[in-house]
Design goal:
alpha+beta, two-stranded antiparallel ribbon, Beta Polymerase, domain 2, about 400 residues, 20 helices, 7-stranded mixed sheet
Length: about 400
């Protein structure tokens, strides 16, 4: 039995990056031997075990053969005679197909270290094209390592393009797709993830609503970058620079989908794009079964982001409706995330990345003013039921009028 550290742990050590998760491969062992040593089996598809003390995953060396569509369409074969090289060749990228023993002696049959130095994301073998999830994974790695100068090798991009054209991407489950998308959006340069998907033709398959934004112009006075797709990527880039959470990044990606529906004859204006985009945002949310908090914020930002930009001009009654829509009294954090998404939208414009956004503090102040209304005095005056609700609303409106006058 020989045990090797493999994949990301080896890659990141060689890159000088922090190693978080460690994967291990066991060569020359049987399931019975692993169980006898106290390893606990997990999963039904292939032999993976948890270490009796560390809890880390140890997998028996295995080969795989395609026998169906999608990410799950494989037959795995694990036995003591499977070599380390045979196990590594089934991996996606050369930089993920390296192993090292407990003395840090490197096994690198597919030249992963060479590609690390060349800053290339290159597939290990033609079997790469058997797994459509790898299109998303490579795009995610491109986003993760963009700051180090990594790019996708042309021949790998071509395989990704073939996968995008083959219909295999449509076999991906929403859960697997969302897992990759969510991880990619939380990288330091998530816009690169979208760029790579677009370059290989996967974006028009997975998210045609976003792909449709490229080439759609906006008024230059408000959007010096003009192109709506370019603007969307810039907004996403700003969200990452400002360390925004996943909910905000997802909302930033989807906020302008309605502009893709504007007839060419109306360009570069996009009247009512906020409302037109809601059905598209809902469709994307449902396609990937995004978490509820991501879905809700994306819809609210899509509908109200222009309200955010015009906050200082809004009538107190409109401002109150906005606050009510977000339920700022019980869910203040969601309104904070809306403000953040609006600010990222304002900064995601060529040459305006450092602009101030006074609307943010104004909206926070409005929420504080509305929340300051106490219910108890109204109860003491005898208000109850629907009348109490109207009385509270009236007091909040007065508070917002006073706030606007003072601002």
């Amino acid at each position: 039995m020989q045990i090797y550290k493999v994949g990301g742990a080896v890659r990141d050590r060689l890159l000088g990056k922090p190693v978080t998760d460690i994967d291990w491969v066991v060569v020359g062992a049987t399931t019975e031997e692993m169980l006898a040593k106290g390893y606990r089996p997990v999963g039904a598809d292939f032999p993976v075990f948890l270490h009796p003390k560390s809890g880390e995953e140890y997998a028996l060396a295995r080969t795989e053969r395609k026998n169906g569509r999608g990410y799950g369409g494989f037959i795995f074969h694990a036995s003591p005679d499977v070599t380390l090289e045979e196990d590594l060749i089934r991996r996606d990228l050369t930089i993920n197909a390296m192993a090292e023993d407990d003395q840090q002696n490197l096994t690198d049959p597919y030249h992963g270290q060479q590609d690390l130095e060349a800053r290339l994301l290159r597939h290990v073998s033609p079997a790469f094209a058997e797994d459509p999830l790898r299109v998303l994974r490579v795009a995610r790695f491109a986003a993760r390592y963009a700051e180090l100068g990594f790019t996708v090798a042309p021949e790998t991009l071509e395989l990704m393009h073939q996968l995008s054209e083959s219909g295999e991407l449509e076999a991906l489950t929403p859960e697997r797709s969302w897992k990759e998308i969510a991880r990619a959006l939380m990288e330091d340069q998530p816009q690169v993830f979208i760029e790579v998907l677009r370059e290989c033709g996967a974006l028009k398959v997975l998210m045609p609503e976003i792909d449709a934004l490229f080439g759609v112009p906006q008024p230059e006075a408000h959007h010096p970058e003009i192109d709506t797709g370019v603007h969307t990527l810039s907004v996403l880039e700003q969200a990452a620079r400002h360390k925004q959470p996943l909910t905000v990044r997802w909302a930033c990606l989807l906020h302008d989908l309605g502009k893709g529906l504007t007839p060419e004859g109306e360009w570069p204006r996009h009247i009512a794009h906020e409302h037109k985009g809601l059905k598209l945002i809902k469709a994307v949310n449902e396609r990937f079964k995004a978490p509820k908090d991501c879905q809700e914020l994306a819809l609210l930002v899509g509908k109200y982001h222009t309200h955010g930009h015009r906050a200082l001009e809004l009538k107190p009654s409109t401002l109150l409706e906005l606050l009510q829509s977000f339920d700022v009294y019980r869910r203040p954090q969601r309104f904070e995330e809306f403000i953040a998404a609006c600010e990222m939208d304002a900064r995601g414009r060529k040459g305006l990345e450092q602009r101030s956004y006074p609307q943010a503090d104004y909206l926070r102040g409005a929420a504080t003013a509305a929340r300051s209304i106490a219910v108890q005095p109204l109860l003491e005056k005898g208000f109850k039921g629907p009348e109490l609700g109207e009385a509270i609303k009236g007091e909040r409106l007065k508070a917002l009028k006073a706030y606007k006058d003072q601002a």
